Amino acid sequence: MNVTIVDYNSGNISSVINSFLEVAKDKVNIEVTSDLNKIKSSDKIVLPGQGSFKSCVDALNSIDGLVDTLNDTVISKKKPLFGICVGLQMFADIGYEEKETKGLGWISGKVSKIDNQNGKYKLPHIGWNEINIVKDSKIFREIENNSHMYFVHSYEFIPEDKNVISATTDYSSNIVCSVEKENIFGTQFHPEKSDKIGLKIIDNFIKL
Amino acid sequence: MLKNRIIPCLDVKNGRVVKGINFVDLKDAGDPVEQAKIYSDGGADEICFLDITASNENRDTIYDVVERTSKNCFVPLTVGGGVRSIEDINKLLNCGADKVSINTAAVKNPEVVIESSKKFGSQCIVVAIDAKKNSNQWEIFTHGGRNNTGINAIEFAKKMEDSGAGELLVTSMDRDGTQAGYDIDLMSEISCKVNIPVIASGGVGNLDHLVDGIKLGNASAVLAASIFHYGKHSVQEAKEYLDSKGIPVRI
């Protein structure tokens, strides 16, 4: 099996690579590439993302044919995709970081700044927070409710259809921190930095 | 609920740990990778390396250390010390650091903070502020606390937030190494002025100091070096103690 981590200059993805390599050992082949043919022929895709919504969308668009390839592979061919942090946020129709920017539009909704209640909550939301699992998601197999995951973000994904939400976390309000829609998975937190429990989520995705 | 973080810090010189955990069963007591792994397995919320390599020709040793650590530790890794340019930051991130802490360079050239947070995202830019009390204000010191800059620490903290820093690592030079506790006034003053998380550093001698840093200093995270070395306290003990004092921690 091939799992492809999409390398589209979205910032620092070495921790994502290291964690997938650790979980995959020698059983699964992990590719890190922006090569469209490799993405097309891959069994599963990982879409990381760091920095701003706009910078990640711009970076995706700057690689010719990448968005079309992702649409074809994920939306038409229904191959499993795992979006991490801004990788998840880009599922939305639109994001408001820096300036209004169109997302991939895979899951209807928007990405806006977390309401910090006039400075009561510090931003970015950095550190370990508990996740409240609200839907049985395939990537949460053997993950206990209220497990701690590592977060770093100032913006949140607000999907229109609440049925896609698989977990939330409490910071100022109930923030969506995991979604599942058919073959599309995403976490706002960083499984690659969430110790053994995070690696278990990656393992669950690889074993889908 | 977001938990307060405990961050053990390891001083690394020429690729070796200077002060570290003194456990008998360590294969190589000077290996930063092995020590980082012990901390992360013991429940550390993040790991911090401070590179104190003095000579330029040995500077590259830290890259190898970071690379090997990031393949073994799956909690966030912050690396600081001697970070001068965007290129330095880029290299550390590529080796597997999750955050880079910038000290002297941020004072000398705040553009580095603006540019790097734009290029890599605020989430990986930590500005390290070394401050010392001078009559009625705190002043910024650089070069590991040797050089006085005359810059007001509180104003500088605000400026760094505006420049795009994701977190501030605040060290009291008066307290560093004294084991007399954090400079609580400094921590709480900065924490109240900025809306980004503050990591308290410098002076921890016992577990109550960690409690004070969070409860009185309003720090989001507490960094400590010596109390975790030589097995005086484990990270787990520290967490249990904080928990008993009503501070939310990841246990």
Features of this protein?
heterodimer, A: 208 residues, alpha/beta, nine-stranded mixed sheet, four-stranded mixed sheet, 13 strands, 32% strand, globular, B: 251 residues, eight-stranded parallel β-barrel, 11 strands, 24% strand
Main beta-sheet annotation of chain B: 8 strands, parallel, barrel
Structural class of chain A: alpha/beta
Strand order of the largest sheet of chain B: 1-3-4-5-6-9-10-11
Tell me the β content of chain B: 15-25%
Described by strand count, sense and barrel closure, the largest sheet of chain A is: 9 strands, mixed
Rg of chain A: 16 Å
Q: How many helices of chain B in DSSP terms?
A: 9
Instruction: Indicate the percent of residues in helices of chain B.
Output: 25-40%
Mean pLDDT reading of chain A:
96
Q: Care to count the β-strands of chain A?
A: 13
- How many DSSP E strands of chain B? 11
State the low-pLDDT regions of chain A, or none.
Answer: none
Greatest interface by residues involved: A-B, 38 and 32 residues
- The coarse overall form of chain B would be globular
Mean residue pLDDT of chain B:
92
